[in-house]
């Protein structure tokens, strides 16, 4: 093993050099990407597959649409709320990656099994919303943190692969749930078993590098000055306690709230909206396409953001997501299958990609020292978005129908696009000219 040294660049960032990924892991760090992606592939079924289960749950138990949707909102709140505590505990050595992933695997499996066998809403809230939400949040925190730690030089593209897998995993589940609704309990039991094995297996092999680890190439101080790969470094490192002392945090938090609200609205309501007009077949195709477009879009956006700038790509993504809501309503209302699938693709490429961009924006705005924890804090905006996009949307659908709901969703996304244009790095002076 080479001599281990710690270097510092002109921005104050530290780099631990001298240990290769093969020396630490016994293989390339690409191994970590695929382990994290496999775990996220399994964990995402609870979010992206839920909409396909709603019609079967209402028929089987007589629960109202609003009651079932509240369980998804509670799940999203639990899932997003556990990401910061998990990152905080892991960075302090109180929670190992394998232990967190094993716990996450067990809770995710419990959440899925609950949806297959629960005969009361209380059981759904306890098993799916709370246990399943906490389990998914643990997996999400550990996998995103692993990408941040092992790919400090290529965060955007690798985060895109891992977060994209979170959406991809539900595609076969959505298709099967729509094709054979009568075997829902069996399908969920089998899915729960697969999820348990995949996440626990990936977690047993997942490891983190030493703090501030840097790969053998590129040379870190040269990389720090290379505007091709390191476009806008943070002006200083912000600890979690300092995050909300700057205006950029609040603006970025609101953007994530609005983007999350629109994405969760589509996940919660699109299948029911389409099924009532065009049947369950097209509804399943729409949900599967939404998950596939979101997964593909996150990979594409992760690569483009490193080259073109995250704020610019974020603005275009939110604009696409806003336009998609109007396309979805018009196409669904008039039973235009091609237009509906186009709208679904825009929605997936738009609001569904914001979490991938958030990973890079956190590092760009607030530095690398506490990147995983700072991401966890901003990710809690998803819980607020769930209240807006699922709970409040139910009242809008009841009072104004789906036209009012899709119009409101499109407006929220366009508002987020406008607000994203005002984001700037904290600590940046408003003017380089002296005050007269």
From TrEMBL:
Residues 240-436 form the Major facilitator superfamily (MFS) profile domain. SUPFAM superfamilies: MFS general substrate transporter. Keywords: Membrane, Transmembrane, Transmembrane helix. It is found in: Cell membrane. Its main location: membrane. It is a multi-pass membrane protein. The chain crosses the membrane at residues 31-48, 68-88, 95-113, 125-149, 161-180, 186-206, 250-276, 282-301, 313-331, 337-362, 374-396, 402-421. It comes from the Bacteria. PANTHER family: MFS DOMAIN-CONTAINING PROTEIN, MONOCARBOXYLATE TRANSPORTER. This is OFA family MFS transporter. It comes from Amycolatopsis melonis.
């Amino acid at each position: 093993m080479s001599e281990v040294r710690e270097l510092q660049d002109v921005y104050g960032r530290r780099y631990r050099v001298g240990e290769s990924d093969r020396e630490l892991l016994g293989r390339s760090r690409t191994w970590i990407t695929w382990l994290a992606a496999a775990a996220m592939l399994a964990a995402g079924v609870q979010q992206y597959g839920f909409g396909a289960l709603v019609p079967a749950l209402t028929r089987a138990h007589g629960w109202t649409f609003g009651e079932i949707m509240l369980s998804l909102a509670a799940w999203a709140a639990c899932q997003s709320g556990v990401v910061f505590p998990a990152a905080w505990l892991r960075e302090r050595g109180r929670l190992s990656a394998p232990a967190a992933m094993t716990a996450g695997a067990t809770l995710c499996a419990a959440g899925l099994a609950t949806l297959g066998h629960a005969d009361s809403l209380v059981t759904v809230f306890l098993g799916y919303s709370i246990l399943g939400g906490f389990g998914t949040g643990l997996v999400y925190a550990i996998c995103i943190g692993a990408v941040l730690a092992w790919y400090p030089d290529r965060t955007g593209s690798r985060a895109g692969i891992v977060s994209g897998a979170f959406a991809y995993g539900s595609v076969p589940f959505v298709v099967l749930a729509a094709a054979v609704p009568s075997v829902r309990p069996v399908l969920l039991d089998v899915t729960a078993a697969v999820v348990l094995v995949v996440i626990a297996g990936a977690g047993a092999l997942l490891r983190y590098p030493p703090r501030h680890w840097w790969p053998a190439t590129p040379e870190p101080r040269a990389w720090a000055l290379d505007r091709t790969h390191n476009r806008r470094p943070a002006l200083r490192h912000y600890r979690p306690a300092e995050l909300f002392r700057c205006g950029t945090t609040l603006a970025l938090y609101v953007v994530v709230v609005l983007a999350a609200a629109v994405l969760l609205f589509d996940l919660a309501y699109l299948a029911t909206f389409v099924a009532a007009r065009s049947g369950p077949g097209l509804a399943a195709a729409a949900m599967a396409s939404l998950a596939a477009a979101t997964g593909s879009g996150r990979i594409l956006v992760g690569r483009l953001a490193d080259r073109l700038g995250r704020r610019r790509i974020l603005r275009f993504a939110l604009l696409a997501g806003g336009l998609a809501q109007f396309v979805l309503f018009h196409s669904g209302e008039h039973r235009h299958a091609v237009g509906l699938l186009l709208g679904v693709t825009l929605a997936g490429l738009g609001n569904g990609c914001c979490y991938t961009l958030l990973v890079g924006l956190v590092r760009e705005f607030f530095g690398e020292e506490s990147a995983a924890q700072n991401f966890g804090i901003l990710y809690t905006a998803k819980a607020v978005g769930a209240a807006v996009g699922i709970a409040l949307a139910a009242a809008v659908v009841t009072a104004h129908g789906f036209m009012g709901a899709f119009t409101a969703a499109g407006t929220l996304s366009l508002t987020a696009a406008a607000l994203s244009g005002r984001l700037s790095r904290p600590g940046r002076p408003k003017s380089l000219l002296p005050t007269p």
